[in-house]
Amino acid sequence: MLVAAAVCPAPPLLVPEVAAGAAAELGDARTACSDALAVLAASRPDLLVVVGAADQDHRGPYPQGSRGTFRGHGVELDVQLGDGDEGPRLLPTPLAVGAWLLRRARWGATPVEGFGVGESLEAEQCLRAGRDLAAREEARVALLVMGDGSACRTLKAPGYLDERAAGFDAAAARALGSADTAALAALDADLAHELKAAGRAPWQVLAGAAEGAGLDGRLLYEDAPYGVGYFVAAWS
Questions:
Q1: What is the enclosing helix (H) or strand (E) of 120?
Q2: Which residues fall within 8 angstroms of residue 133, CB to CB, at 6 or more apart?
Q3: Contact between 232 and 101 (Cβ < 8 Å)
Q4: Among 33, 93, 141, 205, which is least packed by CB within 10 angstroms?
Q5: Nearest to 95 by CA among 77, 83, 113, 111
Q6: In angstroms, rounded to a whole number, what is the distance separating the alpha carbons of residues 75 and 179?
């Protein structure tokens, strides 16, 4: 059963070594992520699963020990999901950012695994994947869900300005802040794709996992510093 969840943004710039001189710009987001991870730790889960967007070749489970890297972003920095031997697969970037957050928080209370979800996965498939994660071996499961909102909030955003972006992000923020699984499940996948909202599929995995769990939500952070919607939420 799902006992807690944290929702965090997934840009590599969240890692100070990658952001370099711009590291301070996401300082508040990092602090909020730390607060959300504290909620996960307090829930005393048996298993933590990091969920994030992945392309077709990187979908599916990642065992404990799987490694990620930020070398492609010009930084000689590697991360690992929990302890153990190196896994056979390289983490996609959102899961690597999640692994970095866990290392920063010195997470060690419970085993950690990863789950990469395709950005194009339909809502019902995402919901089904979430239900399967929450039902694993009758364990107390917590999720760290990595994903961004629209990338079209300003003229300088990666996807340029789209007038629909602010409304999409506002709806997502309300749903994440109130643990509204129905609202997350109802997010329009086609619109999310057009707005480059990579968090849509991971959030819908969370919605499936949280069905019937009776969790409450709090929105800890909401901003779009680079024209991309970033949210931090804690469910418990």
A1: none
A2: 2, 49, 51, 115, 141, 143, 205, 208, 209
A3: no
A4: 93
A5: 113
A6: 36
Q: pTM here?
A: 0.96
C-alpha 215/C-alpha 47 separation (Å) is 17
- Pick the closest to residue 35 from 236, 234, 213, 235 (CA basis): 234
Show the tokens assigned to 188.
């329009």
Domain ranges of the chain: 2-235
What is the number of residues in the chain?
Answer: 236
The CA-to-CA distance between both ends of the chain, in Å, stands at 12
pLDDT in tens, the chain (236 residues): 999 999 999 999 999 999 888 878 899 999 999 999 999 999 999 999 999 999 877 788 999 999 999 999 989 999 999 887 776 679 999 999 999 999 999 998 799 999 999 988 999 999 999 999 999 877 899 999 999 999 999 999 999 999 999 999 999 999 999 999 999 999 999 999 999 999 999 999 999 999 999 999 999 999 999 999 999 999 99
List pLDDT tens digits, range 125-146: 999 999 999 998 778 999 999 9
Please state, in angstroms and rounded to a whole number, the distance separating the CA atoms of residues 129 and 69.
26
Domain 2-235 sits in CATH at 3.40.830.10
Which regions of 66-106 does DSSP assign to beta strands (E)? Answer: 67-69, 78-80
Largest CA distance in the chain: 48
Residues 153-193 have pLDDT tens digits of: 999 999 999 999 999 999 999 999 999 999 999 999 999 99
Read off the amino acid at residue 108. Answer: G
